[in-house]
């Protein structure tokens, strides 16, 4: 009896100490324990508790692999392997937000350093409107010359409930951005209940506190669909190749999703049905045969012998 | 002759700077301080003297402090600016002129006490008018006819017959709260704490007016006369000391290196420059209001206070065909009340054709980057491959051209027509290219190709 009371006292003393370290009241420590058991449950059954929201993309297999979607109250890392993929990484995050935003639209904050925006281009409001139906009133952009300032803005913004999402874009692997920084961002996002996307251009994977890390790159887009089937040579709904490189529910997998800007939805890429929706006309004139195209060569290019290889240009071969 | 004499060239610009800094310092007595020529200052102390224990005490304090700073100053105090000017220069006593004594004081003084042009003064002296009293005695009409209206205006101003307004150097704050210290304060933390105390005083006044402050300035008067001014602005009218304190915390953190504390500050003043109507909102029982605008406004103000006005930007759509002009990023200055718009779900239900915007990339280069196109279809077609940033990109698919003509009503006619192409390379990256100029136009430069943006 006496020993158990003593043990309990020790436990309480330790609890107070932990509370002091974590900077909160000892009575609130219980919540953390509950959280920990929740996580344990999650691992045991491969299910995720439903209390915490998810940003579902609408592509079932992808959402299932993440256990319901991207976590809403968390930091999510979205990597673009090359600078050219910066648009794909940002576009994926915006598309997810666009799908899951409720009727009350709060602004999003897109933070980047000047270098990021110079290398990969500025966020372009008409493009966001046409691709993701994100209104200009729902976007704010923060640009700083220094990375430390951008991180400060992100940390301050992540704790606000006023922003529907915070996108922080960082290029390469700077030493400022370490595990502790991502932990701070993650905890603030968790407390505010709002997603924070860490968009990383041309960075190699590092240890991160984010529960989910995706590697997003552009995939060839689908074809525009017409009544007579897909239109050859057209650039239709954009494709994303998404590799889930870190998550808690499934082994690393890769998906190819297609974003449909008109229907505002993701779907997983499947083989296109080649059968036309309406029969091609039987008696009338058919679509004109393709003719060879005329190519202009610059004289200096010819002289230098920089002619591209023949297989790249079937037209060229035909002419020759 | 005098080998030990030290010769320093006159520097009127530096003198003016010194006078301006003195004027700043005199702000501690009154907000209305004006420069007078190259060697004088006007202070309008109406309603300020009682704060320092009366006119004489104010004057003594001013002269003592200037003496401590190493200035030899003379001061005059009178009911009119002209009489005070004369009192500072010609009075033998304390320089304080009791009200109603202007005429008796001015009468025996020479003409130079009237702030006249040298030409006018020489003219008056040549006809035997050598003192102010003689001008007062002379009849006015011939004087005006011969010497101009300025002479009598100056006289009337000195005697208080017409008003003379001094034009203050700095805008006058609508509300100010200040605190004097016997012992100067040195630490930035103390200043921040002081801001909270001062803004509590400011809040009372703002509440009485039903207003909130949009622009606030903190004046730090250093013991040795230097004045530092720290200004912050708010997107929404504020009056909570906590919020004001937060803004100044960020601003002071950003300015920490540029504010020289020296021997410390003995007067700190918080002024509200522009105030607007403060709209109060009913919170619910948990003390939270429905909108998060306040959060964002405070966040924006803090970012602006710390990192400058051009950090937080807001895109605005502009009616222009040129892509780089169609959206401009403006500094986020003001939290505008939300317009009543169709809700998001309504907009989503609209068919895509209602969306009048053509397809545009997600990211745009504001300065288009030149790309190298070795060959292309003529007269108009997308290039089969191109070099951009030292890499070769092979075009798998292309759509276009979308022709965008230059805005002839804005610029000279030398801008060329642009043909835009959406292209996709073999890896699936989508670019937005354009060709400036046309092929096959005799006498024109060959067309150039640019990268304008890229998309997801």
Detailed description of the structure:
The complex is a heterodimer of chains A (320) and B (456). Chain A has helices spanning 2-22, 29-45, 60-65, 86-100, 114-120, 125-132, 147-158, 179-192, 299-304, 314-319; strands at residues 54-55, 70-71, 75-80, 108-113, 122-123, 139-144, 165-171, 196-201, 212-219, 224-226, 229-231, 239-246, 253-260, 265-268, 295-297. Chain A has 320 residues and is α/β, with parallel strands linked by helices. Chain A folds into 2 domains: 11-45; 54-268, Rossmann fold, CATH 3.40.50. A 9-stranded mixed beta sheet of chain A has the order 6-4-7-8-3-9-12-13-14, sandwiched between helices. The longest helix of chain A has 21 residues, at 2-22. The radius of gyration of chain A is 26 Å and the shape is elongated. Chain B has 3 domains: 31-159, no CATH class; 175-279 and 294-306, Dna Ligase, domain 1; 363-455, no CATH class. Chain B has helices spanning 12-26, 55-69, 81-90, 102-106, 118-126, 132-137, 140-147, 149-159, 188-209, 241-255, 293-307, 323-326, 344-349; strands at residues 33-36, 40-43, 175-185, 211-222, 227-238, 265-277, 312-317, 327-331, 363-371, 375-377, 385-388, 391-404, 418-425, 430-436, 448-455. In chain B, strands 9-15-14-13-12-11 form a 6-stranded antiparallel beta sheet, with no helix packed on it. Chain B has a 4-stranded antiparallel beta sheet with strand order 3-6-4-5, sandwiched between helices. Chain B has a two-stranded antiparallel sheet with strand order 1-2. In chain B, helix 9 packs antiparallel against helix 10 (241-255). The radius of gyration of chain B is 34 Å and the shape is elongated. The chains are: A alpha/beta (320), B alpha+beta (456). At the A-B interface, helix 4, strand 5, helix 6, strand 6 and helix 7 of A face helix 11, strand 7, helix 13, strand 9 and strand 10 of B. Strand 6 of chain A pairs antiparallel with strand 7 of chain B. Chain A: This is Protein ImuA.
